[in-house]
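Late entry, evening session. Most of the bench is empty. Finally got around to the prediction I had been postponing all week. Sequence below, unchanged from the version circulated by S.P.
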Amino acid sequence: MTTNATEPQKPTPTPTSVRFDEEEHAVVDALAEDLDCKSRSEGIRAFVRAWAKSPEVRERVREAAFVRLPQLPRVQRYRVVAPFKKLIGTMEIELKRGQILSLDGHTYDFLSDLYRRGALLQPLAD
């Protein structure tokens, strides 16, 4: 069989395997049902396509998947994962999603205090 060089080639699917516990299977089943998909695979595929298509979906998933550590790790830079607005002393602090904070402009103690007060700060590799 010959193919026309001007026709786009359809990507060959690559199988991927993920092991879920019962609770995670129930979530995947609910995802597939909510998205009117016929199978778990279709539900996960729809989620992957939504992730690829929408920056807002990626932002919301990063926020929902954020794992808060007991203490803010000390690194040079941090990304704000979710909007944060709080009155601290007499100053109103507002952080925007995606904003980068660094130890060049703030002290570690200040950023650590924001983290303790609920700011979602993701440490970035230097």
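Two things to note before I forget:
The helical segments are 22-34, 40-53, 55-65, 108-116.
Residues 77-124 form one domain.
Will write this up properly tomorrow.
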